[in-house]
Design brief:
homodimer; 206 residues; seven-stranded mixed sheet; DNA-binding
DNA sequence: GGATGTGAATGTCTTCACAGCT
DNA sequence: AGCTGTGAAGACATTCACATCC
């Protein structure tokens, strides 16, 4: 079961979303064909993706919707909730801290940090913004496993080091700066401007 | 010109960021090695990426920083500015509308739309939120080329259709819904929850 | 009949390694 | 010597096609 393509994992998460819609609409089974159409891929791709983890379907019938959804939740580690911290209470940071899509998928934002005294203490979605100098201690005491970095580039590495020192196991980085973390910490980068730049490339070449 | 991998385009945009840092610090030349280290890839990869578009370096020396930056701007279509509309003035939408990283890279947010009467007319970063029913007309009159969709899933296709009718050439979709657009319109999807879900997969498998 | 599961074939991307220029 | 540019090799991902089972 080792060596699963990244792209496969992304698609599994997409399939899960569709399965939950199907679940809600009461459908009992679904074919690789149907999943492929909704997910913008091919039936063979869907079957191959699933085959990395076992055989969950019935030949001639398809996949039992609730069962496959359950399996995918297990595979993706979404059968539990995660405690998450957001560092950076600027516009994007506060928006993420309040983004309904996160708790809906099992990610609870339990702390938000900033360095700016004007922001520290302000209420935000139930909690309040905490001083960035307390990151390490709060991450430890609140048992936070995931950190989201949304600071300016210049501060990103420093807050990352504190998150790591506090014991987070994964970091999602929105800052436009390359971060260094120990190999035990999982790192994913999202760069909003980069998305527009690849669009611009496509516009320029047609 | 041959078929250029998507991943290559992304990396070119990353190289450009670093080149601009080097430019600011006054360095005259840079090696593929140095670019690779900053960009988290290999020297061979950097050279291969660039080779899709020509030979910009000098053997034994490296690349002239300002020249290579200029070439990359041309390749990526970043030698001009783009007029962009944001649809959806919720938390994430307003944050994106005011995100400094966009104008810094040549993308000017010239209109923001929402359907909610409570939001329409409210000031936002110089302009004011406009009624979503005017999308088509405003996109046309304001010569908007790129639309960013940040609505709930249920409204995403409808606003997309209006953006397309108005004549946008590209759409960046943050809504957790698959969009259908004519093939002449370039489409890119960003799903924030998906990023955490792939992190969760990594956490569950180690 | 209908749809899965999967080896084999194909296609795409990355890495290697070295010739060739400065 | 130092570093680029690039075919060739290798690794990886997707698609095909068909045996297999309900």
């Amino acid at each position: 079961m080792r060596k699963v393509p990244d792209s496969t994992v992304r698609r599994l998460a997409i399939y899960l979303h569709f399965l939950e819609e199907f679940e809600a609409s009461g459908a009992a089974t679904v074919s690789s064909q149907a999943l492929a159409r909704r997910g913008g891929t091919t039936a063979a791709q869907v079957r191959k993706d699933l085959s990395f983890f076992g055989s969950f379907g019935k030949r001639g019938l398809g996949y039992a919707v609730p069962e496959l959804a359950g399996r995918l939740r297990l595979i993706l580690g979404l059968d539990r909730r995660y405690r998450v911290a957001v560092v950076g209470a600027g516009r994007v940071g506060s928006a993420l801290a309040q983004y309904a899509g996160f708790p809906a998928r099992g990610f609870d934002i339990v702390a938000v940090f900033d360095r700016d005294p004007a922001k520290i203490g302000q209420p935000l979605d139930g909690g309040r913004v905490r001083d960035a100098s307390t990151i390490e201690q709060v991450v430890r005491s609140e048992q936070i496993e995931i950190g989201i970095v949304v600071t300016p580039a210049a501060a990103a590495q420093e807050v990352t080091d504190r998150l790591v020192a506090g014991g987070v196991r994964a970091i999602l980085n929105f800052a436009p700066a390359p971060l260094v973390v120990p190999s035990r910490v999982e790192l994913r980068n999202v760069n909003l401007a980069l998305e527009l730049e690849t669009l611009s490339y496509a516009l320029a070449h047609r």
